[in-house]
Amino acid sequence: MVMTHFSRLRQLLLLQPKFLSSQPRPLRSPPPTFLRSVMGSSSSFSSSSSKLLFRQLFENESSTFTYLLADVSHPDKPALLIDPVDKTVDRDLKLIDELGLKLIYAMNTHVHADHVTGTGLLKTKLPGVKSVISKASGSKADLFLEPGDKVSIGDIYLEVRATPGHTAGCVTYVTGEGADQPQPRMAFTGDAVLIRGCGRTDFQEGSSDQLYESVHSQIFTLPKDTLIYPAHDYKGFEVITVGEEMQHNPRLTKDKETFKTIMSNLNLSYPKMIDVAVPANMVCGLQDVPSQAN
Ligand SMILES: N[C@@H](CCC(=O)N[C@@H](CSS)C(=O)NCC(=O)O)C(=O)O
Ligand SMILES: [Fe+2]
């Protein structure tokens, strides 16, 4: 499904009329607080916005972060997942059930090369969930995003920024601007920016020139206190700020030519699962079930 633009203020929420409401918000009990805790592969923390529920989850084999966001002040508690992994779908669904959330969107930042996305599996287990990816990815999904699009759950939204370079279709999702939105802002950078690193650029139409431009124009221009949540971590980090990464990223702080030299000398071996993962992820992770691969 290709969506049209309306002043780039379009929100995917419009496709979910039940979440459109002009009614005043019902009075509710004191807002829940979500204190930071690091327990196994899951963590959460408080936001100045009482309506955001946030969880950072980890998949050990591919070192992938999955993010759960929900608007818990909305009666339906609408939720979305960013970069779910097939192997941890049951964990994610159990958590969603325990928290009483309604999963609306299963989103990817890009076509992953190292693991199979959980979006297709989520759709089979929770019919009604919409898979979401950038139009530029060329992958199958229910909803295709373009730069400037907004994905809403309740009153919270994610803005889509094109950050190609690791792959041609990479996007970064940034929480909305404004008093009503989570502060500080949060940027889900996929593999564009990793903490003290960045995504490799040697396959999937990767380009170090493009990645450098993407990061410097779309991510390092965000407020310095913006929290960066990457798709992977190989070094024991969980979250960092834009300001800190602008100062300490060993690759992206360099000038572009030095960056390109660094990137062409990484000498990384290909991800073990690349030959399985990329074809699977081009069809939402369900290459063997074509009728459900959207
Ligand atoms: N060893 C892992 C793959 C590690 C890898 O290549 N990671 C990617 C992100 S997943 S496409 C990457 O961009 N790494 C950058 C870096 O500097 O490490 C496996 O076999 O799966
Ligand atoms: Fe990747």
UniProtKB/TrEMBL annotation:
Record-annotated membrane-spanning stretches: none
**EC number(s) in its UniProt entry?**
1.13.11.18
Q: Which InterPro entries match?
A: Metallo-B-lactamas, Mito_Persulfide_Diox, POD-like_MBL-fold, RibonucZ/Hydroxyglut_hydro
* Molecular function GO labels: metal ion binding; sulfur dioxygenase activity
- Give me any GO biological process, just one: glutathione metabolic process
- UniProtKB keywords: Acetylation, Dioxygenase, Iron, Metal-binding, Mitochondrion, Oxidoreductase, Transit peptide
The main location class comes to: mitochondrion
The cellular location(s) given in this protein's UniProt record come to: Mitochondrion
GO cellular component terms, semicolon-separated: mitochondrion
Report the catalytic activity: S-sulfanylglutathione + O2 + H2O = sulfite + glutathione + 2 H(+)
Where is the Metallo-beta-lactamase domain positioned along the sequence?
63-232
Report if keyword Oxidoreductase is assigned: yes
Q: Which PANTHER family match?
A: PERSULFIDE DIOXYGENASE ETHE1, PERSULFIDE DIOXYGENASE ETHE1, MITOCHONDRIAL
Which family is this sequence assigned to? Belongs to the metallo-beta-lactamase superfamily. Glyoxalase II family.
Entry protein name: persulfide dioxygenase
Origin organism of this chain? Arabidopsis thaliana (Mouse-ear cress)
Identify the taxonomic lineage of the organism of origin: Eukaryota, Viridiplantae, Streptophyta, Embryophyta, Tracheophyta
